[in-house]
Amino acid sequence: MDKVSDSITKLQATFRITVNGESIAIATVGQAYDFITRLSTAEWAEFRTLHEDACAALEAAAGNAMLSRKATDALRALLARTKLL
Question: For 58-71, what is the mean pLDDT?
Fold first, then answer.
């Protein structure tokens, strides 16, 4: 896929998180990718490996919906570790 953030591939779960008082629902690969790449690399520095794993899994799932479970699990691990879940 040319642009991961355009992907409408559904994740296996919908994540509802609150950031800066705003509730956000993340249900697709594109939404998840936008969310985790919107912040700078420095903001994810402490969780670099999990961030890289999630980005790679989302990029793969954007091109192959069969990989959406792996992408969901990688995103869940990142969000749980950062205490956003």
Answer: 95
Sequence-ordered list of residues with C-beta below 8 angstroms from that of 65, at least 6 positions apart, any chain: 9, 10
- Residue 85 pLDDT > 90, yes or no? no
- How far is 13 from 3, CA to CA, in rounded Å? 22
Measured distance CA(43)–CA(26) in Å, rounded: 19
CA distance 64 to 46: 29
pTM for this one?
0.89
Nearest to 70 by CA among 9, 23, 19: 9
Q: What single DSSP character describes residue 21? A: T
Please state the domain count of the chain.
1
What single-letter amino acid sits at 7? S
Residue-number span of the structural domain to which 61 is assigned: 4-81
**Which residue matches tokens 């690399």?**
41
